Amino acid sequence: xxxxxxxxxxxxxxxxxxxxxxxxxxxxxxxxxxxxxxxxxxxxxxxxxxxxxxxxxxxxxxxxxxxxxxxxxxxxxxxxxxxxxxxxxxxxxxxxxxxxxxxxxxxxxxxxxxxxxxxxxxxxxxxxxxxxxxxxxxxxxxxxxxxxxxxxxxxxxxxxxxxxxxxxxxxxxxxxxxxxxxxxxxxxxxxxxxxxxxxxxxxxxxxxxxxxxxxxxxxxxxxxxxxxxxxxxxxxxxxxxxxxxxxxxxxxxxxxxxxxxxxxxxxxxxxxxxxxxxxxxxxxxxxxxxxxxxxxxxxxxxxxxxxxxxxxxxxxxxxxxxxxxxxxxxxxxxxxxxxxxxxxxxxxxxxxxxxxxxxxxxxxxxxxxxxxxxxxxxxxxxxxxxxxxxxxxxxxxxxxxxxxxxxxxxxxxxxxxxxxxxxxxx
Length: 426
Known about the structure:
Elements: H1 13-17, E1 25-30, H2 34-46, E2 52-56, E3 72-73, H3 84-103, E4 107-108, E5 112-116, H4 122-135, E6 139-142, H5 144-150, E7 158-162, E8 166-168, H6 170-183, E9 187-190, E10 196-202, E11 206-211, E12 216-224, H7 230-236, E13 243-255, E14 266-269, E15 281-284, E16 290-293, E17 297-298, H8 312-319, H9 322-330, H10 332-343, H11 345-353, E18 364-377, E19 387-391, E20 394-399, H12 408-423
Parallel strand pairs: 1-2, 1-12, 2-9, 5-14, 12-20
Antiparallel strand pairs: 3-8, 4-8, 5-7, 6-7, 10-11, 11-12, 13-16, 13-17, 13-18, 14-15, 15-16, 19-20
Helix pairs in contact: 2-6, 2-12, 3-12, 10-11
């Protein structure tokens, strides 16, 4: 991640000229989430000897989207055939399981249920079955009695069991990637040493950045994996991204320990095609405990993990983007319902009870929230797929929400390929 200030994009010419011709590395990667570190890992493996530096404003890796998700290894069943999400999730799920096994990282391939609780959801459930078969994913149709065999406290009209879904510890994955990157002689800088404040690109000189501690670093290419701040980093570099990040806070609850027996594994609702990331699901984590959620409410800051976290300057930027108002006008009913569930534990519990009728308000307690970096176009369209863009000496990752953690290893290779093309290395 990166802290963006009002400082000019242009570095002082004396700072740029000092040591002119000397490069500190080949590629600077901004962001030490799982995508940024997977990219650095892929760069060191693609061309051993490539000098890579990773910059991260936080004191350690995986402090935002990577470390605040449900830990699910997604199968890829939701995503349209041929999309980047489908391609990378299908490949990435298998690779993530293998990576965890090779490095002793906690993981389980549990499978999951996708449960229809209303008759109008049945056609969408059947469409998912067909999509799963198109992808070659093992899916099995279940009736109410079979649902109860797998999840005795879950109720539904019908369900499908998806065999390749699992859970893992993505923070541990990211830390292991950081170790592997450093073992390949890459440099990973945290805190003020990794907080980018200025980016300067000049023909024939590559990219120079200044960090919050005053250090100037020069590289042949820059890779922007800044997640919640990726569009701001693109503008800091002098590019005009086609989308702006609209942050959605996902709020979770968890079952109190004495009620964790209500959920054995992973249970999901049938997704709404308009907002496939909405819908409260039930997740037994790899370290135990059962999370319920998330909902999705507009965050009042890019790192707005609570209602009290407000950054007026970031809100002003969102308010100036026409896509924000268009999506609000188009989908205000969805938004109102999500906000109501955020403010009312009774309403949130009612959403959980659609699949888990035995749960009561007293069974739930708050759990840490996450913020989804969702790219929105000027016309109010939510960007549905991963989105990459190139500028001079630069590769930007402008949309990488879920299933980016699942797909992080193949995504990292794709970004490394693009960075190599920017470098002129093929």
